Structures are given as C-alpha cells and as structure tokens.
Amino acid sequence: MDVLREGLFTGERALYNLKDTEIFDSTFEDGESPLKESKNIKLHNVIFKWKYPMWYSKDIYVENSCLLETARSGIWYTENITLVKTMIEAPKQFRRSKNITLIDCQIPNAEETLWNCENIKMTNVSAKGNYLGLNSKNIEIENFQLNGNYAFDGASNIHIKNATMISKDSFWNCENVVVEDSTIIGEYLGWNSKNLTFINCTIDSEQGMCYMDNIKMINCKLLNTNLAFELCTNIDAKIISHIDSIKNPLSGSIEANSIGEIIQDNMNFRGTVIDNSKTKIKVGE
Questions:
Q1: Taking the CB of residue 90, how many other CB atoms lie within 10 A of it?
Q2: Confidence class for position 276, pLDDT limits 50, 70, 90
C-alpha cells in the first residue's frame, strides 16, 4: 500500500478516488468530499473537519481518529467500514451504508445516525441523539449506552446485550428484536412491533409494550409501567416485579409478582369483541 504521513489536505475532493493507501497523522479541512469513491484505505490518527468525507467508499478502516461536528453527513453509501477508538462528533453519520463495525467509539451528537443501513456491529459504543438506527436491519450490539429518543424506529433483526438506553418511543414499528441484560428507560416502548424478546431486562416505561404481536419477556422487571400490553397478541411475559397496571391484552399469558390494576373492558376492537379468556394472568406464586 502507498503511505501518506502528516498531511494537510484541503479543497473539494482532495484525494478523490484514492485506492490502496494508508494515511497517518493527517488532517482533512476546508473542502467537501475528500475521500469520495475511495477504496481500500486505512486511516490512523486522522481528523476530518469538513462535510461528506467518505461517500461511496469501500473497504475503509479508521482508528484513533475524529470526525468533527463540521464533518456532517460524513459516511453515506459506503460499504465495509470499521471505526475503532474514534470520536464521531458530527450528526447524520452512516446513511444507506452496509457492513459497518464500530468498536470503542463515542457519538455525542448521534442525531439521525445509522439510517437505512444494514449489517451493523457495535461494541463498547456510547451515543447521544434522537432517531438512531431508523429503518436499519441486521444489527448486533454489545455494551451500549444511548441517550436519545425514537431509537431503531422501523428497524429489524436486532440483537442487543448489556445496554443502558434512555429512549422514549424506542423500538417502534420493529420486527425481530432480542434485548438481553439491559436497562431501558422511556415511555411507550415498542409500540406497533412484532417478535420482540426481552431477557433479564429492567424497563421503566409508561404505557410500554402496546399494539404488539408476539412479545416475550423473560425474568424482567417493569418499573413505573402502567397500561401495559394494551391490545397485544401472543404475549409470553414472566415479570419478577410489580406492574402498575395492565390494559386490554388480546391473547397470551402474563405472570408478575403483583399487579396494581387489571383493566379488561370487553371492548369492541376492529370489529371484534375482545375475548378476555384468551389472556391468562397470574399474580404471585
């Protein structure tokens, strides 16, 4: 591979269509799209200061680097990219990209990040910002911290382990989600989603888990959670805490240490009268 060291690259498309190159200790500034259409690039201790640094790129490795806030919308339509120990300060990163790996990274301004992407792996990542992961699929996450609402709206095939998420309206309109050993804090969790499993999780969610199909909860705690499971089907919930209230579940089974209120209205739902016998509710041992 060619090697570039201690460079200051300026101007639009400064290293356009660069291939098979390793770059050390360098800065890209004052010029859009410096590495557009690049391929097989390794970046070490590199600073990006301007917009659109890596569009339509392929086979990219970035380590110990930084994308400043001004490097907005930096990685779009890119394939096979790994970022390690990198600070991603710019919003709107990763759009319509695939095969993305993030390890030991921080994303303090994660607004509208990871949209319409696929094949994402994140390990030891912290992020702050709304609408992370919109409409993305095939996502593997471990050791994750998020402070941002509306996470993973419309996403599918997600597996998350050991996470703390402060996120209102997370996992809406999702399909095929497994969350393990995690804490989720935020109202209205999981509405309109299908095939969600929570294992060993602590959840604080006002009116969480509503309008869902095929929801499984194993060894979970539901704190400050009321009107749960409204109009849900195929529920399999084993809760090891108190639930403030449950409202009009459609079918399945719910077990909890205690339940403050069970609301079953025999209401007409979409032309069908709810049959309360289709939901088994067990309290205590």
A1: 27
A2: confident
